[in-house]
Amino acid sequence: MQEEIMLKADNIIKYFYEPDQFKVLKGVSFEVKKGELLGLIGKSGSGKSTLLYVLSTMDTDYEGKLTINNNLITGKKQNQLAAFRNEHIGFVFQFHYLLPEFTVLENIMLPALKLNKRTKEEIEEKAYRNLALLDLKGHALKKANKLSGGQQQRVAIARALINDPAVIMGDEPTGNLDSKNTQVVFDIFRQLAKEQHQTIITVTHDDDFAKNCDRIVEMKDGLVIE
């Protein structure tokens, strides 16, 4: 059985124009399979964060082609991209970006309420399932700012999963965590990839995190080096 390709970058070229024209991505091509946990690594200035920004559909000013979940992303309008992101891409950043005045449950439900494809009851049920998956069930009705840093990052993962995204994009998702919580987040990602066939692409500076991924894509000077 042929493995399903969830994301394909084809000759992605990106320029910065300030202060002078500079080619930051120099023709990046690779594929990511369904259920793959991929670590995107490279020294500061290698282009990895810029690449993640393009892959996440936030940056549209590039040359080349990007396909996610069999949808050609390149050329779509901003409102189409915003809708696509909400439905098909989950985000886990270095900082969790939870709304502190909302409960944990409300934070998790927000992207699904915005998508408006399920009833509120169905969304709530899914949110509780995600909390159980991430060992946070007893925290559903607490305000987000009452949780520890590690717990807040797990809530961010539960939120990223709420719309059953094609891909989860992580930008230094363990960058603010101690070693114990870093391991917890990695184990969650590993479980999601293995058991739920969730595709995950994450930029990381953590060597241990990277080497335990299914595959590493290393960037140097705007290119993928094998």
Sequence-ordered SSE layout with sheet pairings:
Blueprint: E1 5-16, E2 22-33, E3 37-41, H1 48-55, E4 63-68, E5 71-72, H2 78-88, E6 89-93, H3 104-115, H4 120-133, H5 149-160, E7 167-171, H6 179-196, E8 199-203, H7 207-211, E9 215-220, E10 223-225
Parallel strand pairs: 3-8, 3-9, 6-7, 7-8
Antiparallel strand pairs: 1-2, 1-4, 4-5, 9-10
Helix pairs in contact: 3-4, 3-5
Descriptive account of the structure:
- The protein has 226 residues and is of the alpha/beta class.
- The protein has one domain (37-60, 76-225): P-loop containing nucleotide triphosphate hydrolases (Rossmann fold).
- It is 35% helix and 27% strand.
- The protein has seven helices and ten strands.
- Helix 3 packs across helix 4 (120-133).
- It is globular and about 50 Å long.
Low-confidence stretches: none
CATH architecture: 3-Layer(aba) Sandwich
Q: Can you identify the CATH superfamily?
A: P-loop containing nucleotide triphosphate hydrolases
Structural classification? alpha/beta
| End-to-end CA span | 26 Å
Estimated radius of gyration: 17 Å
Note the total helix count: 7
**β-sheet strand percentage:** 25-35%
Average pLDDT over all residues: 88
CATH class descriptor name: Alpha Beta
Number of structural domains? 1
Structural shape: globular
- The total count of strands amounts to 10
Structural descriptors:
single chain, alpha/beta, Rossmann fold, 4-stranded antiparallel β-sheet, globular
Summarize the structure.
This protein has helices at residues 48-55, 78-88, 104-115, 120-133, 149-160, 179-196, 207-211; strands at 5-16, 22-33, 37-41, 63-68, 71-72, 89-93, 167-171, 199-203, 215-220, 223-225.
